[in-house]
Automatic annotation (TrEMBL):
Originating organism: Paraburkholderia lacunae
Xref: InterPro entries: Phage_P22_NinX
One Pfam family it belongs to: Phage_P22_NinX
Protein name stated in the entry: DUF2591 domain-containing protein
Amino acid sequence: MKVAELEGVLLDYWVARAEDLLHPHIDDGLCWVEKPACDGDPAGTLDTAFTPASDWAVGGPIIEREDYCLPRVNTNVGTLHHGGYAASTPAGFCFYGKTPLIAAMRAYVADKFGEEVPDEATTGTKPE
């Protein structure tokens, strides 16, 4: 699957994979990751929704840490139309999105995995 086409829950899933979070999986239209319990007991882990492509509180720290520039763009290049935002990575990847979060999270996934990722996502159950 092309990273440039990732959006919504699949984009969230691949950002979770890039962040190396515990057991990312998709269920009920959301990406979930496992968080350890406050007391450190592995039996007390909790699933929490992970939404970096739509929530600034989650995606914003990634953008800040990675130091992405997110200019608003509206250009026509040949038959391509890019309206929205662009995000460039130090590795030279440039991705577009309707929102700055989508553009930046696509760039982040590409920076970690390349311009294509396997067409996979764990749905419903956590991987073992």
